[in-house]
């Protein structure tokens, strides 16, 4: 697993030991950023089920100003911090150990909003439609912002949800990538 492009192109990233985290493959990561970027002129991101931090770090490498990383796994939080330090992005990041629901509530209270949000929950625990509703209803995604959802291949994702419009959906092996624009 590595940074695909941008300032830190080629740097390797640590993986979370064990099978509790399913990192996004380099092939899928490259496909995602070819759709949503490929590069950014600043902006703010949220990596809600961060795992190794690979998606958020890729966004930082490609020009995003800052990213908030959230994961509930203690090992994942440690790996995210290590990967951020290895890439010299610690100053551009906030890392929190929390579950997705509590994290969204905390971000609402802080009145945060984002240009790019990654939702890559463990396939067995997906509540993507509910999380998308919260994100839209509480204005966590900015106008013209994008949300990238990673789910299992059999998942049905809505075409529209409030102000969100599905702009692309692609299958990669057993992974379904769905991208929304606000």
TrEMBL record:
Methyltransferase among keywords: yes
MF terms in GO: methyltransferase activity; nucleic acid binding
SUPFAM superfamilies: S-adenosyl-L-methionine-dependent methyltransferases
GO BP of this protein: rRNA methylation
The keyword Cell membrane appears for this protein: no
TM ranges: none
Domain of life: Bacteria
Xref: Pfam families: Cons_hypoth95
Matches recorded under InterPro entries: DNA_methylase_N6_adenine_CS (IPR002052), RNA_MeTrfase_RsmD (IPR004398), SAM-dependent_MTases_sf (IPR029063)
Name the record gives this protein: Ribosomal RNA small subunit methyltransferase D
Organism for this UniProt entry: Halalkalibacter hemicellulosilyticusJCM 9152
